[in-house]
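Regression test case RT-17, inverse folding.

Input:
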């Protein structure tokens, strides 16, 4: 029985995703457990298991039609080819009517009780008084304290079985094993935010998990035992097949496909007829800048290129270094590479030669600030001192409130100086994760630097090359880390950028690159780390060690970056003095929308900058540099498709599902959110842990969306047979494509840059998408799926 229970829990856990903590809020697909299924199957399973919305509402489609984002002729054609012969407006009204049956999710008594216990046990330092017995694990801690919960009416701890497994066995006694998995799935799906965070703590082996363990078996044991004790039915509620559900899904998917096709056609118009010279030209730019593939980089790259003879590249923002970063101020080690990678290195800051005194002085100021902050928190929260402290310090808090309200730009300046000062006093040091190792080999350094050049298709080197990480800046924002670099696990990318620059500057690394790989870096080329503030579009160069020989060129670059910031913020915010408004947003504690983050993302373009240069892509496309002519083996393209393409699919689906059902997959309005446990938010005073983005990150007004919920469209500039070979070699990529989680288009340079679209089973079509293709998906298949699901 024990083995069957554990196997059933593992299978049932696919219903939930991974809830990331606020301090490293990585956007990821909440339906990742369903990715092996076709998109239509997956969303229908989610609709049944989680009781969620899976497609946009009619009001969203109406907005898209109004804005010209859906071609009415194509939508009408697609409707007719799928058996819908009436007008577009008729079917939008039909969606409205059918959607009334999609009731908002409500929390049961059992959910309320579990949320209370989970928030107490999983607290990560927010509460002044910690729950007793936490070190013994969730089930044991709950068992020892359950008798004090008036909601449970337990007189003696001995009423509860001694272990989580025995508790589950006692509840399931006499129940067929065939029902184990449906029962577990039902109860895991009841609170997908909390169970998703249990998933996260186990998957990433956090320090809190090591000290205070909890797993899904513990959760189910407590929940099922309480349900049984309170005479609550543990069986999933049976869902009857509803013919209206099929009609609703079909209509919504027709309109979604029409919307996606219109976006794809517009993007094809941008790139199809452009001449692609690649990076083989002999004109050496005044400076080259590498940015993260992040959609927000597209804006600043375009404005920098317009200011002079500058060349920009796109590369995943962790800059190819699978590392953790140890914060020099608090000693906390955080992941700074994609979550799908295991960290191989640890990076920390050490004082530069001759700057030890200033470095240590800066640390002391920081330690003093942290202690003051900690002291204030303790005085405000501890019962004996609360009233006296608040009364005595009210005047000073009043001054602080006035400053933050009326002078947010000045507050930002003070914070920025303190935050970036240590980069000017320090240098990065890379070491392996193995504690006994002091440094990494020259071969590893060469491989890291070479990999970046290979993936981007690098040819010529300018006198100044800048690796630019990015991070967002905002105040009073629980989701602040979601504005940082997703490729760095929601950390700022400046540490990775500085580390890569340092390695590329090493003489021995350059010598080996030339001798072993034929990569010649001029002696006067210098690499610099930098940070792009995506909230203000300011770029800070960490240039304290740049030699005098480069100061004149550096001064010109800084002036042009300053001009680019002004025009970029003006473009983005639509006001004359965009910099002032952007700076205000960073420190305005009432600002619900400091920036848009990755909202509106819809495409991933892998190819030369020539494909999109001088074109306004409206910050909707991830841009990864790639030169097919230099990648003769296809290994560079394969690495891009295996890594960045998969991660952008995560991001895209996170935004998609947070938009279509913000109640479950998002986090509701920031205005009514409360932080719990230092790691998450809940709405009001309890309920499920919220797993996704707030409404303010997705909507421009209460009634209008800013993000458009479209699946990711990937465009690759490479020979078609090369792409086909990569798909055949990588089952996970083929599954994403065959199952409709992403679209793939290939611009084939060997056939005059003709664009072909991928279809299931490694089929390619050059002509535009025919609505006929979707007849099977939309008409026949969902009927069988629904019958199977509802049986």
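Golden output:
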């Amino acid at each position: 029985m024990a083995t069957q229970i554990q196997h059933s829990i593992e299978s049932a856990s696919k219903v939930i995703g991974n809830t990331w903590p606020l301090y490293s809020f990585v956007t990821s697909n909440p339906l990742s457990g369903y990715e092996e299924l076709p998109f239509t199957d997956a969303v229908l399973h989610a609709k049944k298991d989680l009781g969620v919305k899976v497609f946009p509402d009619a009001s969203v489609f109406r907005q898209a039609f109004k804005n010209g984002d859906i071609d009415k002729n194509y939508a009408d054609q697609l409707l007719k080819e799928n058996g819908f012969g009436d007008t577009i407006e008729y079917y939008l009204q039909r969606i409205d009517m059918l959607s009334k049956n999609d009731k908002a999710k409500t929390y049961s008594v059992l959910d309320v009780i579990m949320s209370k216990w989970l928030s107490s046990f999983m607290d990560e330092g927010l509460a002044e008084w910690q729950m007793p017995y936490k070190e013994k694990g969730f089930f044991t801690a709950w068992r020892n304290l359950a008798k004090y919960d008036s909601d449970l009416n337990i007189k003696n701890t001995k009423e509860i079985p001694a272990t989580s497994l025995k508790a589950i066995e006692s509840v399931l006694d006499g129940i067929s094993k065939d029902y184990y998995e449906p029962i577990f799935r039902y109860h895991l799906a009841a609170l997908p935010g909390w169970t998703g965070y249990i998933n996260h703590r186990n998957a990433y082996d956090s320090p809190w998990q090591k000290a205070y363990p909890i797993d899904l078996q513990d959760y189910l044991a407590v929940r099922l035992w309480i349900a049984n004790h309170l005479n609550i039915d543990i069986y999933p509620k049976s869902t009857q097949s509803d013919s209206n559900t099929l009609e609703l899904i079909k209509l919504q998917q027709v309109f979604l496909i029409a919307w996606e096709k219109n976006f794809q056609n517009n993007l094809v118009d941008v790139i199809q007829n452009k001449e692609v010279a690649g990076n083989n030209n002999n004109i050496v730019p005044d400076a080259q800048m590498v940015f993260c593939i992040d959609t927000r980089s597209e804006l600043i790259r375009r404005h920098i290129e317009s200011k002079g003879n500058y060349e920009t590249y796109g590369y995943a923002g962790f800059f190819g270094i699978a590392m953790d970063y140890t914060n020099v101020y608090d000693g906390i080690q955080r992941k700074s590479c994609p979550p799908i990678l295991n960290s191989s290195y640890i990076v920390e800051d050490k004082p530069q030669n001759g700057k030890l005194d200033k470095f240590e002085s800066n640390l002391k100021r920081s330690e003093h600030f942290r202690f003051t902050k900690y002291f204030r928190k303790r005085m405000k929260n501890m019962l004996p001192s609360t009233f006296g402290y608040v009364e005595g310090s009210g005047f000073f808090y009043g001054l602080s409130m006035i400053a933050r309200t009326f002078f947010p730009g000045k507050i930002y300046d003070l914070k920025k100086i303190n935050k970036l000062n240590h980069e000017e006093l320090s240098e990065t040091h890379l070491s392996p994760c193995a504690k006994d190792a002091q440094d990494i080999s020259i071969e590893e350094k060469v491989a890291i630097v070479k990999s970046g050049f290979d993936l981007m298709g690098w040819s010529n080197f300018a006198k100044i090359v800048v690796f630019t990480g990015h991070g967002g800046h905002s105040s009073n924002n629980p989701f602040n880390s979601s504005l940082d670099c997703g490729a760095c696990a929601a950390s700022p990318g400046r540490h990775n950028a500085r580390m890569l620059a340092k390695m590329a500057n090493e003489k021995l690394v350059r010598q080996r690159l030339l001798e072993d790989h034929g990569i010649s870096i001029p002696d006067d080329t210098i690499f610099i780390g930098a940070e792009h503030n995506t909230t203000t579009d300011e770029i800070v160069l960490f240039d304290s060690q740049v030699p005098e020989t480069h100061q004149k060129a550096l001064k010109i670059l800084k002036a042009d970056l300053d001009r680019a910031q002004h025009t970029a913020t003006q473009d983005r915010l639509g006001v004359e003095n965009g910099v002032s408004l952007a700076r205000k947003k960073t420190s305005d504690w009432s600002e619900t929308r400091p920036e848009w983050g990755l909202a509106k993302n819809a495409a991933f373009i892998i190819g030369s900058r020539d494909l999109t240069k001088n074109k306004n892509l409206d910050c909707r496309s991830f841009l990864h540099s790639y030169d097919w002519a230099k990648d003769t083996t296809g290994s560079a393209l394969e690495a891009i498709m295996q890594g960045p393409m998969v991660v952008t699919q995560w991001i895209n689906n996170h935004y998609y599902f947070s938009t279509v059902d913000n109640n479950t997959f998002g986090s509701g309005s920031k205005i009514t959110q409360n932080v719990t446990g230092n790691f998450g938010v809940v709405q009001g005073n309890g309920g499920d842990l919220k797993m996704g983005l707030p409404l303010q990150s997705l909507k421009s007004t209460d009634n209008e969306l800013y993000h458009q919920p479209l699946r990711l469209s990937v465009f690759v500039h490479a020979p078609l047979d090369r792409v086909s070979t990569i798909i055949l070699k990588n089952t996970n990529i083929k599954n994403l494509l065959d199952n409709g989680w992403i679209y793939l288009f290939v611009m084939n340079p060997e056939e005059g840059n003709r664009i072909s679209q991928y279809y299931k089973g490694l089929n390619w079509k050059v002509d535009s998408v025919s609505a006929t293709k979707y007849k099977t998906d939309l008409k026949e298949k969902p009927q069988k799926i629904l019958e199977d699901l509802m049986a």
